[in-house]
Amino acid sequence: MSPLESNPVAVLNHIDEYVELLYDDIPEKIKGSSLILQLARNPDNLIELARNEALLSALSRVLREEWKRSIELSTNIVYTFFCFSTYLEFHPVIIQYKIGSLCMDVIDYELKRYDQWKEKVEGKKQVLTPEKNELPKSRIPEPKTSS
């Protein structure tokens, strides 16, 4: 597979196909959200994307329902809405679809997950390293005393 096949270039005229991918399994949702993100990263496309209610509804629905299942999917969608948020005229879109609240839920969850991961790693680290005040036991056998 060539690099171009693995990373197709998004075309605004195919937006309906990308939205349809958001109704499939996670890999297809990731692909669709990635293509939509490509379009959203170009400021010239934002007006057209903002007019597409099916697109915005599908993105917000997928983010609301699937964000725990794939960090890549949620990142693509949050980044897409971030592209809208950088322009004042698109702030009503962010408010209408409650993206701020969804983002806070994602951030809160990921921070908790990070804390759990960190505790788990620190717990394993303590198991693997002996206490500083303990000397490691010698593997050399002790001499036998004659009685």
Automatic annotation (TrEMBL):
GO terms for biological process: cilium organization; microtubule-based movement. SMART domains: KAP. This is (African queen) hypothetical protein. Signal peptide: none annotated. Residues 128-147 are annotated as: Disordered. GO terms for molecular function: kinesin binding. InterPro entries: KAP3.
